[in-house]
Amino acid sequence: MRKTVAVQVDDVVPAMRPVLRSQGVPEDVAPDERMARLVKESVSIYRDLVDPVGIVMEISKRDFETVYRGEGMNEDETPLGNIYGSSDSLALFAVTVGERVCHEISRLFDNNDPALGSMLDSAASEGTEMAAGVVETYYRRHLNDTGWLDGSAGTLQFSPGYCGWHISAQKKLFEFLRPGEIGIELGESFLMRPLKSISGVIVAGPKEIFSFDNDFPFCRECDTNSCRDRIRDVWKQ
């Protein structure tokens, strides 16, 4: 299965609280009037400019081993390296919210409006994460419809650059997935264009394979520990 996924704008417009969280505002702190106005303005601009799209492609474990190894720069042990061999199905994916919103972020900073530029950057980042969630849901429904997934199984995303999977694995991922078809290109430093894009693998399998402790050496350098929330969400699927 290889499919371009049309992502609806309304499905990738973030609420105020996630944008504030991305700005470092604690959940229990109410924004002042100026900050609330900036969030609303940034989300409005984002909604007008966003052009979301995704692509997803199933891949065999044998081929994914090539993608996972990448350029041979992964940490010695990673959560994904321990998990994918026990999976039932794997799919590469890439999503973007488009170039126009990225250009507007740059324009705001260039025109000395860093407050709005920073807030729009946060809104676009949250929206990109939401787009990746839409594609993961699409793939999970595909597995349900074809009988490959039941209540005992779930899905979880992993991306190069996180959890010990070196960002240079993007090169092999792009060779297999070819997301240039939806306008996503890979630069020499392995960063994507448009910048507000996400790529990776969706792992499907028994929910228990996704339960891992965040005690890897690289976990000490993680600022968010967002894997904890994502693992909990697997059990809600």
Describe the structure.
By secondary structure, this protein is α+β, with helices and mostly antiparallel strands. It has one domain: NADH Oxidase (3-Layer(aba) Sandwich). 42% of the residues lie in helices and 16% in strands. It has a 5-stranded antiparallel β-sheet with strand order 1-2-3-7-4, with helices on both faces. A two-stranded antiparallel ribbon has the order 5-6. Helix 1 crosses helix 6 (114-145) and helix 2 packs across helix 6. The longest helix has 32 residues, at 114-145. The mean pLDDT is 96.
User: Radius of gyration from the CA trace?
Assistant: 18 Å
Helix content: 40-55%
Write down the secondary-structure element order.
EHHEHHEHHEHEEEH
Ranges with pLDDT <50 over ≥5 residues? Answer: none
The total of helices stands at 8
Proportion in β-strands: 15-25%
Could you say what the CATH architecture is? 3-Layer(aba) Sandwich
Net shape: globular
Query: What would the average pLDDT be, to the nearest integer?
Result: 96
Largest sheet: 5 strands, antiparallel
CATH class, named Alpha Beta
- Could you give the order of strands across the largest sheet? 1-2-3-7-4
> Could you state the oligomeric state of the chains shown?
single chain
CATH topology: NADH Oxidase
N-end to C-end Cα span: 22 Å
Structural class: alpha+beta
Number of strands: 7
Q: How many separate domains?
A: 1
Describe how the helices and strands are arranged.
Layout: E1 2-6, H1 16-22, H2 33-49, E2 53-58, H3 61-69, H4 79-83, E3 89-96, H5 99-110, H6 114-145, E4 153-158, H7 170-177, E5 185-186, E6 192-193, E7 197-206, H8 226-234
Antiparallel strand pairs: 1-2, 2-3, 3-7, 4-7, 5-6
Helix pairs in contact: 1-6, 2-6, 5-6
